[in-house]
Amino acid sequence: MTKEPDGRRRPHTDGLPKTEPMSATQVRQNAAAKRMLRRLVQGENPPTAPMSIVDRLAGSPYANPMIQVGGVDTSARKTIDFALHLAESMFRYGAGALEVETSIIAVTAALGLKHIEVDITNQSVAINYAPKDQTPISLLRVVRSWTNNYAGLSLVHQLVTEIVAGGVGREEAVRRLEEITRSAKPFPRWMVTVAFGIFSAVFVGVLGGGPGASFVAFVSNLLVSLLARQLGRWRTPDFFITASCSFLVTFIALLLWRFGGMVGIQIAPEIVVVGGILLLLPTGRLVSSVQDAINGFPVTAAGRFLSTMLTFGALVAGIAVGFVVVAMTGMEPIDVTKTFPPTYPLWVVIILIAIAVLMIGITEQTGWTLLLPTAAVGVVGYLVLIGAENLGIGQRFSPALAAVVIGLLGRVVALRMGAPQLVVAVPAALILLPGLTIFRSMYVLTIEESEILLGAGGMLNAGAIVMGVAAGIVLGDTLARPLTRGQASNERRRARRR
Description:
Structural class: mainly alpha
Number of helices: 18
Radius of gyration: 30 Å
Number of strands: 3
């Protein structure tokens, strides 16, 4: 064996294969193989890499916003202030947290701000802007009031679309947002009051009530609407407003049941009360809370859900007090198991459903152009409900299935009309809520104390249906997203041409 200069012995290599230096091609192939193996093991991105906030826009109508390079804002403070004003308006009009967040991200990105963070709670929106080597800016806006204004929400949605498409600068956007927030609602108060009564009247007809029951429902709900407006002027908390309204409609229906026979008027109180309490149910807030919970906004969802439960509690409390007061007059027991055969043929019921959804749209201040499409979606949802019940799907699952269809069609129609899904889906889905179950359960809980378990079971069943409807609307919206990507792009192209 040969020796090294330092005296160490070389290992014996006679039996090993001879090695040759790798060529340039082999080196490149080896590097490519290592990269492929690394991707298989690690994925495209390292597992701890932070997610870009603009990636939150994936699946929304504002994906890939057009950055206005030529007119990037030199004042980040003004852009952030505009984004907060936009978010406050959307929250006041009933938008969900995800829609508010995506709108903020899309608008700020389009106006040149790339390093922002958004934090949304039930009543506040905070934006933090921290570019590298610059002084960070943090602003917060608290939302202190809410109102029914789906028309305003649709206009804000269109404004965001045009900003993202690159057709509107910041100064013009500020001016247009001020016009939206200061403009009058599409329908005056008297029309909303009349719509409240008409909805009750036609829905009583859907449930099986005759013209007499519809007339009573119309008059009683006119009074309910006037009472709610007066209590609002006195700045009464919403809890007591809802409780007072549900008490009034229950009190009138039970009084007619108690004393109406003396004058030849015998109207089942259940269907009269149902026509009045459906519009008192916080459907929009419930759908938004479920949507926020599913989309990863637990704090916002918890706050909205608590508000929803308080409103629901006020509703049933008012009904219970109405039962107790009228029972003191010696009211005869009500057969809560009684069913009501259809008073009108199916084609008349479908027309009544369309009118009911139209009236709901008016009470929610939906824009004129969206009323008929919303009514069409509501009719389709009702037909799905009837079909599911005839197939024996069940009392709980049938409304949820109809809500999925309404949520899916609502997103398709809303994007085509330049509005968010909530504006179409919520009014169309209101007819699915279990008003009769709520009334009957509260009667058993309040009057028939021996059947308290039956009443509690009925309330749990009603709660399950309400939650199923809300979750169905959100599921329908999710299922429709792959189908509406092209519509979102077309909407942005139309906005760009304008």
